[in-house]
Each structure stands twice: as structure tokens, then as C-alpha cells.
Amino acid sequence: MTKSQKQSTDKSAWLILVGLVILGIVLTVLLRGKDVVLLNPKGIIANEQYTLMMHSTYILVAYAVVVLSILYYFAWKYRESNKKNMYDPKVTKGKSVILAIWAAPTLVMVVLASMMIPTTFKLQPRAAIESDKQPITVQVVALRWKWLFIYPEHDIATVNYVKIPVDTPVQFILTADEAPMNAFWIPHLGGMLYAMTEHVNQLNLMGDTIGEYQGSAAEINGNGFAGMRFKTDVTTDEDFRSWVRKTKQTSSQLDLAMYESLLTPSENNAVALYSRPDNALFSTILSKYAGSHDHSAMHGEDHMKAEPMKNMDHGSH
Predict the structure, then answer these.
(1) What is the residue-wise DSSP string for the chain?
(2) Contact between residue 199 and residue 290 where contact means Cβ atoms under 8 Å apart
(3) In a domain? residue 51
(4) pLDDT, tens only, 270-314
(5) Measuring CA to CA, which residue among 254, 264, 261, 257 is closest to residue 178?
(6) Are the C-beta atoms of 217 and 225 separated by less than 8 Å?
(7) Residue 180 phi, psi (nearest 5)
(8) Do both 98 and 160 map to the same domain?
(9) Cα–Cα nearest to 53, from 66, 36, 68
(10) If we measure between CA atoms, which residue out of 78, 66, 74 comes closest to residue 104?
(11) 282: domain range?
(12) Residues 181, 238: one domain?
């Protein structure tokens, strides 16, 4: 290697190093004090997702470092200026080399699969979360462009607002009305799940940290998509019971006539609280789209029951 080539190589290496340092500083400044949702789980499911994501990232980064190091090593060893190690295309590759080339990625694949496959089954959205507290049910209806939440066990309903007690499993029962497809997502608490007309989906979540978290639609769905957000409060049991009592005293009742007004498309909707929602409202919404799918089994609670989730140590939703 000539002196000019060596200087050029050294310069490139320094530029790469300086660039990485600058990138690290910029990311540190931009993320300081910020709530990066996927890196800040506040629920048992989100914690499982975070653990699985980080373990997978560590494994893939370690593998990438090894592969790139080997790539750089061979590029350096067989560089044009190195006359001591000449590449001879007639030399046959040894069996050990072939074995290593195939064994390494296979091992990585096996390790990742051994982590992800069991977790995928354990954290399926319908899987009940094991807890010493009784789960509560929240029926969710995706509208244009707002979210309706019905608490059938507490005889209240809300628009764009969810309040749940800490460390209590919550069964979100999802459907949609006059909004063919949407995606319900509270990133701090867990993964998202689709809400669709003609269908009932169930998403089990549980907040383990008291706080206020943002929920949103994760599916682009028209003009009001950007404002289709809702606030999720995870509170103490006492605060939740107090809120339920106050909401029951609200003068606005969610009868069928009020619901018809909610069906009118609207954007950036404010929070609304309702008392005494019509007992047949959710079933009525489902029956509107009865036809190609049989919803008769979905109106009861049997389809919502699932085996409790065991050993919640790691995983993803």
C-alpha cells in the first residue's frame, strides 16, 4: 500500500468514527427526557414485548458485528496491495468452512425461534392475564373519527377516554361501526389489534404503573385519522371506583338516539362521559352487519374465556 493509499484509508476510518460519535450525541440530545414508548413499557404485556425485542436485538447485533468483522478481515487480508496473500480461485473450500457458513445463521435462527414461538402462543391477544384481581370488560367501538368505550359491568360509557385500575386485567372487546377497519393501540400497555365491522376481537392488557398514557388509531382511516386519539388513565382501585360513581351521576345517557348522533363523522372530539348506556347497544352494533359471519356465539362471554397466562417473565403480544 502506498503512502497516499494508507492516508486515505486512515482518513476514511476517522471520518466513520467521528460520524458515529456525532450520531450518538445527536440521538442522546434528541431523546433526553423523551418518552420513547417502545422503550418505556408501563404494562405487563408491554414489558414482555420490550424484553423480547431487546433480547432479539442483542442477538442480531452480536451476529452482525461478527459477520462484519469477518468481512472486513477478509477484505483487508486479500487487498490488492497485499502480495503475501494472493487469492487462488482454484483452491477448494474446506468442509469446515462450509459448515461454519451454514451453522452460524442456523444457530441464530434456532435461538430466535426458541424465544419467539413459545412467546407468540403465550401472549396471543385473547390469552387471559393471570391475576388475583377480577378482570374488567371494556367494549370498544371504533367510529369515525373517535373511540367509544362501554363499561357493561359498571353501567357507564366514554368517548376518547379510558380509565382502568392498576394491576387489574382488562378485556378490551373490539368492533367497529361505519368504519370498516381500524387498529386499537395503547403502546405503553401492549400491542395493537384490529377493530372491524362484522368482527369481535379481544385484546387483554394490564397496566402495572399508575400514569396517563396515549392511545390512538394505528390504521390510516381518512380525514380524522390524526385526531383519533384517546387518553388512558391507569389509577388506583379507589380512584377508579370514585370515577365510576361520579360518571354514573352524569346527566348524559347513552341511549340509542344519543349513539346515532355519535355515528356522525367528526374530528378531534373532546372527551365525553355517559351514564346508563343501552344494555343492547353493543349487540345492536354487531347485528347491523350480521350476514356473511355468524355473530350469535359472539354475543355471550363464552368466546372470551381463555386459559390464564402462566409465568409472565418475557414475551410479546
Answers:
(1) --HHHHHHHHHHHHHHHHHHHHHHHHHHHHHTT---GGGS--BHHHHHHHHHHHHHHHHHHHHHHHHHHHHHHHHHHT-TT--SS---TTSPPPHHHHHHHHHHHHHHHHHHHHHHHHHHHHT-TTSEEP-SSPPEEEEEEE-SS-EEEEETTTTEEEESEEEEETT--EEEEEEESS--EEEEE-TTT---EEEETT--EEEEE-B-S-EEEEEEE-S--STTGGG-EEEEEEE-HHHHHHHHHHHHT-S-B--HHHHHHHTS--SSPPPEEEES--TTHHHHHHHTT-SSS--TTTSSSGGG--PEEP--SS---
(2) no
(3) yes
(4) 999 999 999 999 999 999 887 644 443 344 444 444 344 333 333
(5) 264
(6) yes
(7) -50, -40
(8) no
(9) 36
(10) 66
(11) 128-291
(12) yes
And the C-alpha cell for 276?
Answer: 346508563
Q: What is the pLDDT of residues 189-229, one digit of tens each?
A: 999 999 999 899 999 999 999 999 999 999 888 889 999 99
Same domain? For 205 and 282 the reply is yes
Q: Please state the domain count of the chain.
A: 2
pTM of the model: 0.79
Q: What is the residue whose three cell numbers read 419467539?
A: 116
